[in-house]
Structure formats: C-alpha cells, structure tokens
Amino acid sequence: MLVYGKTTRDMDTSNPAAFVNADLLRLYVGKRVRALIQVVRSDGGSVVGKSTDDGQIIVKGNPPVPPTNFVEVIGVADSDKSIRAEIWTNFGDAIDTHNYNQLCQLANSDFKHLFI
Amino acid sequence: MTMKAPSPDAISTIMANPSPDTTADMPEIVVQILDLTPKGSSRYMFTANDGKKKLKAILPSQLTPQVISGEIQNLGLIRILDYSLNDIPSKSEKYLIVTKCETVSPALEMEFKSGVKSEETGILLKPKQEIEINSEVKRESSGNGIMLKPKQEMVTKSAAQIIHEQHGNMVPPARMAMTRRVHPLVSLNPYQGSWMIKVRVTNKGTMRTYRNARGEGCVFNVELTDEDGTQIQATMFNEAARKFYDKFQLGKVYYISKGTLKVANKQFKTVQNDYEMTLNENSEVEEASNEAAFVPETKFNFVPIEMLGPYVNGKELVDVIGVVQSVSPTMSIRRKSNNENIPKRDITIADESKKTVVVSLWNDLATNVGQELLDIADQSPVVAIKSVKVGDFQGLSLSALSRSMVVVNPDTPEANKLKSWYDSEGKGSPMASVGTGMSPSTRSGGRSMYSDRVFLSHITDNPSLGEDKPAFFSIRGYISSIKPDQTMWYRACKTCNKKVTEAIGSGYWCEGCQKNDEECSLRYILVVRVSDASGEAYISAFNEEAESIIGCSADELDKLRSQLGEENSYEMKLKEATWVPHLFRISVSQNEYNNEKRQRLTVRAVAPVDFAAESKFLLEEISKMKAS
Which residues 80-109 of A have a C-beta within 8 angstroms of B? Predict the structure, then answer.
C-alpha cells in the first residue's frame, strides 16, 4: 500500500523570527530574524542589501532568480551585520519601507510580547 | 486737651482781614493743609482748609525746608502766625501767603470736614480724633474755652463713605510702573473688572481683511503666553488692529490691560483656553522694557511628505519640512466671499521620501517669505512650515493659514539631515508628486476615506446615530456575503434612471420622461453584509458602488443568472466578491419599520484599500494610542 505523504510548509512557530533592520540586527546575533532589504548588488553567494533604516545588511545564500528589487529574508543572524538566509521571498519592486521600519520598531519595543 | 482740628471759620477770619497787623491780637488761626504740591523748584503751594471753606495758599521758600523735613505735612495742621491775602490778578479768587507758621499737628486721617460725625469704632484708624461735631458747638463751659467732649451721636454711614474716609488720605496711586499688580492669565474671566497681565507674544498672525454686511474690516490675532505658561489668544479688529499691529512683536513682553474676555469659539480654538481676549482702541499695551525678547523655540512635529495622505481634508494641521524645488511668482486670487484680491504663491518642496508637495502661501507669507524664498531658490534652501492644512487639490496639496509659521533654513538636526541628503543624493534623483495616484473621493463630497474613520461596532452600538440628519463615516471592511436570492436590481429608464413600469403591450413606461421605451436597463439595489474586526452590518448599495463591489454591471450579472448549466456562474460571481477588503464611505440614517426605529446604512463611495496608506494610518492610530 502506497502512502503518499504530503509535505506542507507550515509556519514554524517554535522558532519565531524577529523583525529587524540594520540597527536592531545586533540585538539578535545568533538568533532567527527576518528583514526586508532592497537588493543593492549580489556577488557570488551573498547579497548586499539596504535595510529599511537605510543601513547595510549582508545576506548569505542564494537569492531567488530573478530577484525583485525588494526581498524579505528569514534566517539566522551570524553577525551584527549579516544574516544567513534560509528563506527568501520576493516582495516586488516598490514597497513602503517606512511602514516596515515602523513595524520593526514597534515589534521590538512596546509590542514585543505580541511577536516573540 | 489738644485741639486737633482747624479753627472754626479760620478761612473767613483770614478773608475778613487780608493784611493783619502783627502787633495786634491775632486770633487763633489753625488750618489744615490739603493738596500740598511743589510750585517751581523752591516753593510749595497748598489749599488751606478749615472744614467749611478752602483757600489757595503759598508757603514761601523759607518754609520749604520744613516741608521737606516732614514738619509741615499734607493733611497736617498749622497755626498761621503771619500772613497776607492777595488777589489773583485775572480771577476773582484770593490767595494766601503764609509768611510765618508753626506746626500744630502732623497729617490727620483725612480731609477735615465739619459736620462729619465720627464713630468710636474700630474702623477708624489711630490717632483717634476728637472731631467737633458742629462748628457751632454749644460750649458748656466756663469762659476759658475748655471744650468738653460733645455727646457722640451714632450715625450710620454707608460703606462707600467709610471706605472714602479710610482712603481719603491715602497717597493717590503712584505711576503705573511702580504699583503694577499683574494677574496670572489663568485667573482672567469675563466677569472680573480691571486686570493687568504681563505676557509674551509667542505667535503673531498676519493682518487679514474681510468684508461683511457691515462693511470692510481688518483683523489679526496674537498668541500670548504668561510666566506660568498659560496661553490665550487675543484678537484685534479695525482701529485696534491698526493701532497694535506694529506694536506687538514676536518674542517681546507686554503689560496689557483693558481688554475684554469671552468664551472661546471652540471651532477656531488655537490655544488651550476656555476664554479668548479682544483688545479695542481703549486697551492698553505697554512694552515691558526690562524683559528681554525671547522667541520661544517653535516646536515642530514633522510629517514626511509621503505620509500626508491620511491628513487630507482632515481638521488636523500638520508641520512639514523640505528642500525648496521651486517658487512661483506671486499670483492674485480673487476671494469668492468678498471679491477681494489676495496674493498667493506656490512653493514646491521635497524630502527624503523623494516625494514633492506644493504649499500655497497667502497674504503676507506670499509677499514676504515667498519673495525671500524666490531670491534664494537656487541655493535649494530648507524650509520648515508649521500648521498647514492638507487638501485634496491635485491629489494632495498644502495650504498655509494665518497661524502658519515659515522658517527658512532652520538650524535643526532635521534640516541639516535633509540638506545633506539633498546635496549628496536628492539633487539628482527623480521626484514624484505625492498627489499623483491619489484620487479624491468624488461622490462623498471630497472627504477622504480617512476622515471619520470608525469601526462597524461604533455604528451598530449607537442606534441613535443619524437621527436628525444622516451621519457619515469611513470604514474599512470586507464584504462577508451577498445573498444570491435577493432582489438585486430594478428596471430603470435608460434616460433618467428612474424606475419604469411594464407598459401595456410591450416595452416599459417611464413616468418621469412620460414615454415608452422598448428596453430598459437594470440598476443595482441590493444589500451586502460587511464585516470588520469589530463586527458586521448590512449595508445597502446602489448601482455605481455595487458595480465596484461585484465587478460587473447589473445587466451582465443578470445574463449570468439566466445561464443554465453546471457552472453556477451567477453564484460564483457573487462569491468572488466576498472577502475582498474595501474602503467605504457610509451614511447612517433612521428608518421607521413596523413602528420600530432602525438604522439604515448606505454605501456612498467605495475605494480599494491602498495598503501603504492604510498602514500609515494604522501606525498613526497606534502612536495616538500610545500617547493617550
């Protein structure tokens, strides 16, 4: 009897990723984070991105092909300036980075308890 | 017993004997000195008072030292030892020259008047006076003139008389500068008579002219702040406006009195105060010379240009900062209300969001600051503007008010950041106007989907909303269901959209157009269920709005309905319309149905959700939550 297993990508709530920008990244070194970045350039194995607070974040891994202007990455912060990405999601060519940045700040201050 | 009173009829005695012979027996002449004032630099003059009559008098210069030393005092008594009475050349009066005198008493309590009865009560201050009740005192005495204390008669006096007696000898209020009693702004009210305040001008509006039924006028107002930080707005019209416009300068301190207070018009409230002040031509404004001018640092709360969306057509005024891209020449705009021409200038500013916005400056701002900006426009100056209104002209635009403040190249961190961004990056970047892509609401009278934003529960929890006249709100919600088996439409006249009836024979009859037509159109009239995070409600929708919601016209939907087959395309179409978010403009009114009052909600306008704008709105709401 063949049993077909269905693989689903469930949301991993056991290890939540904190919303970060360049400034907040250093608070989560070694931990799981997610960040929206604007792709500045990609060179073999990593992407240089501009964070929503106009800082720089290096993302290691392979971006989607082709990547859109804005990409969200989820992964582990391996330093205070870089993320080792596990998941990449194209977020399109135009997005309001200010809103996302405000979200990062709210999610790490007054409303942290709703996220982590 | 010392007689602390003038001699009775002393003045008459003097008048009767203008040039007494010093050797002769001179009667006792004691007078009270009133109105003692210096005449020239060496002599004093006064009014001699005996309780009944008064006489102008002069103390020659040799007696001046006695005045200065305090021996001869105003309200005091002197015994005149030698005098002469002269005529005043041009008048029929006489004046007395006192050549020799001696002090009898220092200042009495008050001007002596015969006939005034004293009471031995605590009201009178020391020294207790034994005042003769009458000039014609019945002297029950022997010949040597001993005065017995006459019977005191109790006489009631009015409060005013008592106060006068008490204050009659008080020094008249000195010059304002020395005895100013300043009232705190917080203590002012319309019922308090005279007050004086010491305030700084913390904001000065421009002079506006107006025309109404009574004619033309001009007005301006200032914001006044006192030491405690209380603020009040003061308005001046016409004469007063002209009188004080140049006098009031931003940052300077003034003593103000003789203004009037009234309850503030909450509609135009600019400062936190229940009252507002009006100054007229009789009001007094005096600059406080010892106070340094201090222009309090204007507090700005900048909204980035791209975040202005939620403020469109709202009541809240915003502050903006940007790099000047262009300055228009002065335009003359005719005001509809009074046909008056006012100067206007449009400036375009940009910020780091790479968005630009046009700010309209009016009147003084257009001519003064506007000109200044035009002159330095090629330097790309930074301009900070406080309190502008956000309108929907050309999508989004800003307009200055009389209370707006414009600061050119302010020395603040935001300005410096902006300038360095512009110099390094912004200068070359393409910019887009923040207004493009923003559609002003047409049907709902120009109101944006962000004004009067509520949750559905706010409407459904309040059954009395819309009782007198319809109330309007904006909501963001999802269509949760559309019943497929309701009356979706009515048959409408192709010309006037009114309901038509089936004509005898064929076709349709329109009562309004008074004609028959073979064909009619179908126009939506349906009810949809809308839900949001707070609850749900049934809302009526008419043709245009329903078309937006369903995604096709009523005629098209009817075709789908009559389609037979497995695919129930009609129901599918309706299902596809559900769980789509929309921004709605809703009107709420009351209907009576079976003797029951019911709320009737109607969609007036539909707009797609702009998620970026909506997020900004939510961020604003979150920060408001935090602030309260």
Answer: 95-96, 98-99, 102, 106
Return the exposure string of B517-554: e unless at least 16 CB atoms fall within 10 Å of the residue's CB, then b.
Answer: beebbbbbbbbbbbbbebebbebbbebebbbbbbeebb
Task: State the CATH architecture for B456-488+525-618.
Answer: Beta Barrel (2.40)
Could you give the C-alpha distances from B524 to B186, B245, B253, B488, in angstroms and in order? 60, 60, 66, 6
The shortest C-alpha distance from A102 to chain B (Å) reads 8
The minimum CA-CA distance between B614 and chain A, rounded to whole Å, is 10
Tokens linked to B619: 């961020």
Confidence of residue B139 (pLDDT cuts 50, 70, 90): very low
Please tell me the pTM assigned to this model.
Answer: 0.43
Token pair of B301, please? 């709360």
Supply the angle between the helices B554-561 and B543-550 in degrees, to the nearest 10.
50
- pLDDT at B159 (0 to 100): 66
pLDDT at B441 over 50: no
Among A96, A106, A110, select the one facing B612 at the smallest CB separation. Answer: A96
ipTM: 0.85
**B113-129 confidence digits (pLDDT tens):** 876 544 444 343 444 44
Superfamily grouping for domain B185-287? Nucleic acid-binding proteins (2.40.50.140)
Binary contact (A96, B619; C-beta < 8 A): no
Which residue, among A19, A40, A99, A115, would best test binding to B if mutated, counting the most B CBs under 10 Å from its CB? A99
